[in-house]
Amino acid sequence: MSVDPERSPTSDPSRAERASAVEVRRSARRRRTVSAHREGDRTVVLIPARMSEAEERRWVGVMLDKLAAQESRRRPGDAELAERAERLSGQYLAGRARPASVRWVTNQNTRWGSCTPAEGSIRLSHRLQGMPEYVVDYVLLHELAHLLVPGHGPRFWRLLEPYPRTERARGYLEGVAAGRLPDPPRGPGD
Description:
Metal-dependent hydrolase; hydrolase activity; 5 helices; alpha/beta; 4-stranded mixed beta sheet; UTP_pyrophosphatase-like; Zincin-like
């Protein structure tokens, strides 16, 4: 995300205090624009080298606001998630999977999603928010399939065959999970 400081509205400098990890990078080559992006759990703000400290504080606040607004547009709420589930069920499961509730949860740190078929409830981990849509769709479709088939047998996997990005989504999630694991212990010759 990039913004021209001369054309952007002013922002309250106190907004910068909300950021837990902000790195400001100054560039002599950067003349007019300010940009920001996320690198893991850190926000990087790129500014022209000539910018004063007061302008830097103001622009950090502006860019944090812009990133937060952009991310909130990308992260659907529970209502949008339920609509998405209905669409996926219709498209891939002939509308047979009808959850009673679909929602984001923050207490799932080892699973991407879970389903309670008896209640018809589906829960997706908040860790999926911000991931590519095809990944969220895969996890949601996976949980919808559990409303029809409880286990992970051949019948279950046949339900997911029509979704064209199953393998890609599974690979993405495996990569994310592997990136969060501690490094394996090193042997004497390593």
